[in-house]
Amino acid sequence: DSSVMTAGRGHDDMVQSLRFTPDGAVLITRGWDGTIRTWDVATGAEMLVIDEPIGVVGFLQEMDVSPDGSLLAAGSRDAARIWHLEAGELLYELDGGDSGSSGVAFIPGRTALAVTSGEIGRAISIWDYEADMLTPIPGSGSFVTAVAVSPDGRYVVASDDAGGMTISELTHDWAEGKYSISGHEGTIWDLVFTGSGLTLASAAEDTVRLWDLDVSGRSEWMVLAGAPDTLSSVAYSPDGSLLARGPIDEGVVIVDALTGEEVDRFETVSWQVPDLTFSPDGKHLAVATASPLAPVQVWNVEAGEPVAALGGFEESPHWPFVWSVQYSPDGSLLGAVVQTKVQLWDANTYEEILTIPLEDPENHAVRELAFHPDGTRFAVRGTSTNSDGKTGDFVNTYNLEGERLLTCCEQWWEKWAASVDYSPDGALLLTSGMNQQTGEGLVVLWDAETGEEVASLPGHPNTAWDAVFSPDGSVIASSSGPDSRIWDALTQEEIVTLPNPSDGIIYEVAFSPDGKRLATTGDFGSDVYVWALDLDDLIEIAESRLTRGFTAAECEAYAFDPCPSGS
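RE: above sequence
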């Protein structure tokens, strides 16, 4: 209506955002002049002027109207505020701190508002404005730009400046992280649910996309937020009930492997945890750290107490960074790999029983250790740099006396991408790296006795950083920058590709003991993602996220017979 457009010129500066009331009778405008104004849509008359305590500066300052049309919320660079829309009275105010609370969205059926935070690593908070209670929800690790709540009040979506969105389900306990989706190349500036359903529109620098949250969502069983500027690691307990992950606030967190609920927290006093592993009986957790005084730390899981600090290093030009820790299959030995040597300890007395130093520490390094399933030997993957500065790597196998049995498995790699694993029957060695000619990621199977190449698994678009066998040896999981992949170990055929929801690389992959789930984590603050691989788990995820039945057309398209229409 031209009269409304004319009336909208009441602002002294540019209009920054617009909102209609649910009945469409009132238009709300927000200007850079520090005022919010309401307009009668039918007549174009200005109805109300609200002077904000602080002027609107910059973009990403959102407004929202409560479902009943009585309240107006606005985010700003200093706070989130709620006014009575008709009277213009300020009712509630949430201090946004140094980062502000720019995005706001009312939650239907509750006296609550979803608000964004400018703090990297925290997506949003749920603010019960009547109870004055704030519940934070962990984010993706990127800067949060917008927030939207589904019309049924079930889902809250937060977008970020990396083109991703985090979807959380609003439960009775306020919020539970569900999954993440991505597709935009740049910052997502706005989110809106269309109509009364669960179709979400996201607007970014490159395009506008529509998402059907009714039937979409990847096969993520669980997502656990990471910490910034760290190398992350993850490990399952032998019975599969616990998941250890770190570092979080210079420590390791133990969570319930099914729910993600924190069970315990161990303070390792290290900003890096490149590796960790449970003892075969599940009673102890060994942690690789960057601490010069105690690079290898062992914790009693049940008591939550440290029991050993191993591998203190003398002064050396090489930082005592522990890349790998492993228990022998019977739990009698604990091995660790640092840049300049390999060490073995008695896992009961923690007495050092073997040290294998590198012959040329200036040009060689060791990265990962794996025990043979029979416990009589172990493999160490190392790297060497020639006179031209080119780096290649190798696998050495040793007996428990430190005698070298075999040198094999030369494969090009990039720094830190040096994994090695035995097949459960001990017949094969598995390494990850890259094809030097093409730059593509390459996973290779080797004969563990002869060191001869058995098969290669190409396909990753860049360096393959990790590769492991499933507990029964039937499949292989590998990782790179953009994805993780599952392979048939017998035929070497790719089974499925799992996208990387975070930035950076996927540094580590770990199967649950039953092989039904795969945990992945990455470099420098990546979240831990637990993926369901079992059909029953996938069905459970689908049922938990399905908010309507299938239509007859959908059943025909997907060949469902009988049609699971539901309600």
